[in-house]
Amino acid sequence: MLKMNLEKNLNKILIIDYGSQFTQLIARRIRELGVYSKIISHNKIKLSDIKNNKVGGLILSGGPLNVYQSSKIKFDKRILDLEIPILGICFGHQILSKNLGGKVKKSKYREFGLANLKKKNKSLLTRDFFNNNKCNVWMSHSDEVSKLPKGFSVIGSTKNSKFAMIENFKKKLFGIQFHPEVTHTKNGKKILKNFVFSICKLKRNWSSKFQKSKLIDQVKKQVKNSKVICALSGGVDSSVVAKLLKEAVGKNLVCIFVNTGLLRKNEEKQVINTFKKKFKINLIYVNAQKLFLSKLKNVSDPEKKRKIIGNLFIKIFEKKAKKIKKIKFLAQGTLYPDLIESKSVTGSQTSKIKSHHNVGGLPKKMKLQLVEPLKHLFKDEVRKLGIELKLGKEIVLRHPFPGPGLAIRMPGFITEKKIKILQEADYIYVEELKKHNLYNKIWQAYAALLPVKTVGVMGDNRTYEYICLLRAITSEDGMTADFYNFNKEFMQRVSNKIINNIRGINRVVYDVTSKPPSTIELE
Ligand code: XMP
C-alpha cells in the first residue's frame, strides 16, 4: 500500500483551471503519458502549492472568460519567476501573453473548429507534430493575442491567428491558441508529450495502480469509520465503485441491487454471484420485477417510462437505506463526462450547457453526503481501474447499459412477454459478437424490439411477428457515435439465429444512423 502523502511526493504537472470544458481532458492526456497531474482552480491556487509540491511544469487551461475581466481572474505574476516551464492553452495562452506584456484583443474573425496551422519556426515543443510543415488543429476562440510579449517568437500561425503558437524558449514559456488535448487536433498529444518529457524533463510515474491507491486513500479520508451505501446496477461504473469502496471501507459498505425486471438475460445471477459470493460484499437484493411491471403497464411515452422507473428506484432505495443505521454516505459511479456539461469540478467558472441527471436519481431528502471517486475519470480509465481492482474482464469490458434498462429498448407498451423475447434476442446478438471477436471493437451494441408486427413465411406458413432492431456503434465517449460496419455474413448469421430461436420475431433490421442525428438508445 502506498503512503498517504503519495501525491505530494510525485513529480507532477499542475494544471491551473480557468473553467474550460477540456481541463479534465488535459489531465487525462497527461495521465495517458504516464505522468501525474493535478488540477487547481485559478481561484484557489497559492504560490506555495506550486513551490512545495514537486511541480515540474504548469499548464494554464482554456476558459470562457475574457482576459480583461480581471476581477474574475486570479493570476499571480510570481509564477513567472519560479523557473518552472509553463504552457498556456487558448485562454491560458492569452492570459500568459497579457501578463508578460503582450496584447490580447477581440479577433476580427473568430475561429471555431478545424484550422490549418503552418509552421513558422522550429521548436522542441513541436517535435514530430507537423507534417510537411502544417497540421490541422482545433480552435475555439474569439479573442486573440495581437502583440507578442517581449522575448517571444512565433512557432506556428493559422490564417486568422498570427500568434497561434509562440515561445520564449530560454524561459521555457509557451502559448498555443488551439487545443492539443482534443482528438480533433491531429498529433496534439505530441505537443503535450514534448512539453512533459523534453521540456519539463519529467519521468513516468503514474499508472492504474497508483490511481487505485490514490482513490482508496481519498475515500478513506472522506468516509472514515462511517457506513456507505452504493446503488449497484451491475454496470461497469457502479461495479468499479463498489469494489473500490470494499477495499477502502470493508464491512462499512452496503450495496443495494434492485432487479427492475428490465435487466439483460442472466444479469441478476451474475451480479449476485460476483458481488455477494465472490467479492463477499454486503449486498441487499431487491426483487421488484412485479412492481416495475405493474407501474409501467399501458405506458408507452418514453419520458413517462423514464420518470416512473427513476421514481420507483429512488423509493425502493430510500426505503432500504433507511433501515440501515448510521449511514452517512452515498457512493455513486459518476464519471467525468456525466459532469462535463453541468459544472466545473474544480470550482472555476464554466459555461453551463446542460444539467446532468445522474443514474438512479439522488435521494435528496436523505441528506447523504456523496462519495464519487470516479468523477475525474473517463470510461476507459475506469475500465483500467476495474482491471487493477481485479473485477474481471467480463464486467469491466461490458458495454454500457442505461438505468431504465430494456424499457427504453422497447418502444411502445412493455409486457413480460416482450421483455423475455428481447432478453433472448439481445443475448444471442451479444454472444455472437463475442464469438466473432467483435464485442470489444464496438462501444455499445444491443437488440431492441420494435412495436410493429410484419408478415413472414416460415416452413410454408404465414407468421405475423415483431421486428427486432440491432444497434452497434463506435464512439469515444457516447456523446457522438457512428454505426458499426458489419459484414454481410455476420449479419445474416445473427438474423438467422434470432429468428430460428425466438418465437415472436420474424424480421431483423440494422440501425445505420449515427449520433447525431439519432441517439444511441431508441428512447
Ligand atoms: P443516448 O441514447 O442519449 O445515450 O445517445 C448515450 C449513452 O447513455 C446511456 N444512457 C443512459 N445511461 N441512464 C443511464 O445510466 C439513462 O437514463 C440513460 N439513457 C441513456 C446509453 O446507453 C448510451 O451509452
Mind explaining what this structure looks like?
It is a single chain. The chain has 523 residues and is α/β, with parallel strands linked by helices. It has 15 helices and 18 strands. The chain has helices spanning 6-9, 23-32, 47-51, 91-99, 188-199, 208-223, 236-249, 267-278, 289-296, 302-323, 336-339, 379-388, 393-396, 416-435, 488-501; strands spanning 12-17, 36-41, 55-60, 86-89, 103-119, 134-147, 153-158, 161-168, 173-176, 227-231, 253-259, 283-287, 327-331, 369-371, 444-458, 461-474, 482-483, 505-510. The strands form three sheets. A nine-stranded mixed β-sheet has the order 2-1-3-4-9-8-7-5-6, sandwiched between helices. It has a five-stranded parallel β-sheet with strand order 12-11-10-13-14, sandwiched between helices. α6 crosses α12. The longest helix is centred in the middle third of the chain and has 22 residues, at 302-323. Mean pLDDT is 91; it is low at 341-345 and 351-361. The site of xanthosine-5'-monophosphate has 11 residues, from loops.
Low-confidence stretches: 341-345, 351-361
Number of strands: 18
Report, as a whole number of angstroms, the end-to-end distance.
Answer: 45 Å
The portion of residues forming beta strands comes to 25-35%
**Oligomeric state of the chains in view:** single chain
Bound molecules: xanthosine-5'-monophosphate
Give the overall form.
globular
What helical percentage do the residues reach?
Answer: 25-40%
| Cα Rg | 26 Å
Q: If you average the pLDDT, what whole number results?
A: 91
Main sheet characteristics: 9 strands, mixed
Total helix count? Answer: 15
Kindly report the spatial arrangement of strands forming the biggest sheet.
2-1-3-4-9-8-7-5-6
